[in-house]
Every structure is written in structure tokens, then in C-alpha cells.
């Protein structure tokens, strides 16, 4: 499975993680995983420092089809930070009365930003430092929750200041929009009615498009690697940041 | 089951929620539940707006013995705030690079504090407002994580300013200590070696003391109502705030 996966839809959609491929890749991604689902303003975040094939939390997620408009998932191979619950993505913080969820793929070398405000890392990963710095700077730029368009402009100014330290592929959401940035590898796909296939499926993840049948329904997926080989996945350009709202890119 | 339950131990201890009593009380506490487990600096929080007898998340917790030194659980009967995921206790925020978890039992009437700093409620409960205000004022009182003793003194100044608005029984933890405040009803018990009973058990919760066998091992439990009828549960006095560290009260 991809290291990063994001889903943004205009109607709550089931996403089921079968984890059948997790055990195959256990040696590669054995250092934890996490999945966050927004339900309106609330968020449900499952993280585990155990590999997915040994985790009761993974069992739950495999059995529990959660309907959500915004999903962020991450499989962790530890590169910076020791293996511990507090280092598992996605990370969650509150800003402007909204929860923000963030997952990162890549390494930031020598990244030690000045964190002088309200957001401090709990663990010791470069990823959580970057998330705290983004929130700190976002809080300076807006007095309350900006529109997705406004925040996209802000992020396009902020993100390059982090990305120059290394590889900064990330997905972030506040339950209103889903932002994705590519340093090296990230793909996206928008599926709309009529859906050629009833289900999108690989070894690890199933999105039940049978729930999405109206002519207005749309699902945007963002993943490190394409999840299917017969659809028109678009590669992000290096340095590209996109925002998805209601299952479609704002650009 | 009690509406609030807290556990603080000096060694990680299994706590298992059988939920057998939840369904009996479904009409009374049908508006969600939540449980947070600290694992060192990390925290694992399970919340659900569904009643526990209908929730796959409850199934997970029933089957999954999580070893933790600090646990906070809450069963919700909605009084203020609509039934939604974002209104489920416990609430979590980060301050000073530590996660803080908070659960409240009671009502605060007309409580609308000035929240001018970094902590804003996501939902619409009086409980989350009180938690945000406490964190805001704690952040003004200390530049970094205070000792449990220092924070206890601060909380004893702050908490009465909230409690005068109504009923403010709460449990809070940052994974280093567990604080509990009583307005109307809260009990505590410290169990130490040698344990007279192998297991503490009522309809809803089992703490496996078989894991806790050394002469130094201690478990403090805080609950709205005593969980057993043959042990020396102490009632909190109205207005009393206690801090528990390593399974024992600081006072």
C-alpha cells in the first residue's frame, strides 16, 4: 500500500482498509500506521506503533466501514524519531476551533524551525515539527478559519520554506478541504459519476463507490502510488500543492 | 458504569471494558462514550457518538487489553451540545509539547468564558469550553510543563472559577499525573500490594491486578461511583481537587 493516502468526497463515502497487503510489506513498513476520518467537525484517529498485521486496531479498521468525506492514512517506516505511539502519523491539532490532521512522507534534514507559539511537538519526528511550524505560521496569517482558497495561497507561500530541507510529500485536512503537496512522489485521481467500475480495489484499500451514485457525486483520491492501473492517475509535479473540496481540485 | 473513570498506576496496567452493563443503561447513557490511554508521551483516544452496545469501537476496546499508566473514560448523556463526534469526551489538546486529556461530568450554566488564546472549542459543549479555558490559563501560569505539584496549586486557583457555574466533576491527565476534581460526586481508591483480590470487577470494567504483583506496585482509581462494594472507596469532598502520581495521591 501507498505510504500516504487521502480521500476527499462530496458525500460521505466508505473506505475500507483490508490490510491484506500490509503483512507482505511488514519488513518495509513495520513501524506503525495511522488513519484519520473526519465526521463533520469531529475526527476519529486510529494510530498504532505496531505493524498492521499484529495490531487489534488494524482489525477494527478492516472490519469497520467508516463513512467520511475526508480521510488521511499513513504507513510508517521510521527514518527520524524512534518507534513510539507519539511518532505515528497522522498528527492532530486544533486551530481556530477546527481539528487539523497531517501526515508526511519523506525526510527533512537538519530541520529545526523556531517554534515560539502555541504548537509544540510531542514526539521527536521532523514531520511533527513541520506540522507545528505550518500551524504556527497559518495562525499568524489568518484570524479565523480561512476559505480553502485563501489557505491554499498561504500554504503555497509557507510550504517551500519547509520543502527546501528535504522531501516533503504531505496530506493535510481540516474536514472542509484536503491539501496535498508533492516533493517527489504523489498522484491524484478524481472519480465522477457514472463510475465505470463499481469498486476501486487493490490489495489494501477498497472504496465502495456503490454508495456514490448520483450524477453530482465525486471522489478525489491522493496516493503516493496509483492504486489502480487502468485509470487516469495524474502525477503531481514536484513542488505542486493542490486543494481538494467536494471531490474536485480547486485549480 | 460510572460516568467518569480514571486510572493512574506506577506500572502499565491492563484495563478492560467489558461493556456488559452499557446496554442495560443504554437509555440513560446513549449519547456516546470515549476512552483515552496514555502510552508514555503518546495517547490513544477512542470516541464514538454511538451507544456502546452498537459501536464497533466498543467491540475493539472490549477485546483489546491496553496496558497504560493513565486512563480516562467517559460515558456521555447529552445535556448541553448536540449528539456528535466532536462533542464526545475525552477531549485532547497539546500544551508545552504534551497531550492533555480531559473528561467532565456535570453541567455549567451560562458558562461562556473569554477564550482569547490558542485553545478554541471544536464542538458546542460547556465541557470543552471549560477545558479550553483551563489550558489557556495554565499556559499563562507556566512557561513549560510544571511539576504535578506546581500544576496542582495552579488548578486549585483556576478550577473554582469554573465550578461556580455549576457541576464540575472532571478528570484530566497529561500522562505524568492524573488530576480529579469533585463538585458533587467522585470517589477514589488506592490499591497496593499485596492485593486482596486478584481482580477488580463490576459489570463494566476489569482491571487485571494479576499484572501488578510487586511490593511497590500501586493503582489509583477514580470513579463517579465506587466500582466495588467491599473496598474502602473514599468520597471526594465537594470542591476537592487531587493529583495522583504513580498510583498514589500527592496529598
UniProtKB/TrEMBL annotation, chains A, B:
CDD domains for this protein: YafJ
Keyword line: Glutamine amidotransferase, Transferase
InterPro entries, alphabetized: EgtC-like, GATase_2_dom, Ntn_hydrolases_N
Ranges of residues in domain Glutamine amidotransferase type-2: 2-251
PROSITE patterns given in the database record: GATASE_TYPE_2
Gene3D superfamilies reported in the protein's UniProt record: Glutamine Phosphoribosylpyrophosphate, subunit 1, domain 1 (3.60.20.10)
A molecular-function term among this protein's GO annotations: transferase activity
Name used for this protein in its record: Class II glutamine amidotransferase
Amino acid at each position: 500500500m501507498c505510504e500516504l493516502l487521502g480521500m476527499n468526497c462530496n458525500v460521505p463515502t466508505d473506505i475500507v482498509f483490508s490490510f491484506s497487503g500490509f503483512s507482505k510489506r511488514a519488513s518495509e513498513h513495520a513501524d506503525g500506521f495511522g488513519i484519520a476520518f473526519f465526521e463533520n467537525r469531529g475526527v476519529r484517529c486510529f494510530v498504532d506503533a505496531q505493524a498492521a498485521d499484529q495490531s487489534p486496531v488494524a482489525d477494527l479498521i478492516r472490519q469497520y466501514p467508516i463513512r467520511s468525506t475526508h480521510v488521511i492514512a499513513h504507513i510508517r517506516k521510521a527514518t527520524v524519531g524512534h518507534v513510539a505511539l507519539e511518532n505515528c502519523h497522522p498528527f492532530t491539532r486544533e486551530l481556530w476551533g477546527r481539528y487539523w490532521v497531517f501526515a508526511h512522507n519523506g525526510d527533512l534534514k537538519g530541520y529545526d524551525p523556531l517554534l515560539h507559539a502555541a504548537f509544540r511537538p510531542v514526539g521527536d519526528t521532523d514531520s511533527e515539527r513541520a506540522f507545528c511550524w505550518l500551524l504556527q505560521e497559518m495562525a499568524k496569517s489568518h484570524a479565523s478559519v480561512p476559505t480553502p482558497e485563501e489557505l491554499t495561497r498561504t500554504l503555497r507561500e509557507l510550504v517551500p520554506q519547509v520543502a527546501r530541507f528535504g522531501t516533503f510529500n504531505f496530506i493535510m485536512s481540516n474536514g472542509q478541504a484536503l491539501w496535498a503537496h508533492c516533493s517527489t512522489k504523489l498522484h491524484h485521481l478524481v472519480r465522477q459519476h457514472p463510475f465505470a467500475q463499481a469498486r476501486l480495489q487493490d490489495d489494501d484499500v477498497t472504496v465502495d463507490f456503490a454508495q456514490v451514485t448520483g450524477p453530482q457525486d465525486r471522489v478525489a483520491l491522493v496516493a503516493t502510488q496509483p492504486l489502480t492501473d487502468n485509470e487516469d492517475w495524474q502525477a503531481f509535479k514536484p513542488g505542486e500543492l493542490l486543494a481538494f473540496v467536494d471531490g474536485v481540485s480547486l485549480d
